[in-house]
Task: inverse folding
C-alpha cells in the first residue's frame, strides 16, 4: 500500500475534515506509541499502519479493508 492509498482510505472513512486530525493526534500503542503521521515519518509501512487503524476501528466498511 502507498501513502496516498492510506490517506485516501482515512479520508473515505473519517472524512476530509477529521482524517488529518486523526492522523496527527491519535496515538496508537500498536505503532510504538506514535501517531499515524509520526509512524509514516519514521518509515513504517502504510499497510502496517492501516492494519492498526482497522483494529481500532472495527466499524470501517468492508470495501476499505
Result:
Amino acid at each position: 500500500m502507498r501513502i496516498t492509498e492510506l490517506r485516501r482510505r482515512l479520508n473515505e472513512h473519517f472524512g476530509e475534515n477529521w482524517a488529518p486530525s486523526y492522523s496527527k493526534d491519535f496515538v496508537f500503542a500498536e505503532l510504538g506509541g506514535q501517531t499515524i503521521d509520526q509512524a509514516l515519518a519514521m518509515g513504517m509501512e502504510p499497510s502496517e499502519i492501516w492494519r492498526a487503524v482497522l483494529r481500532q476501528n472495527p466499524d470501517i466498511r468492508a470495501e476499505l479493508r
In short: DSSP finds four helices and no strands in the chain. Residues 3-58 form one domain. The CA atoms of residues 15 and 28 lie 19 Å apart. The chain has one domain: 3-58.
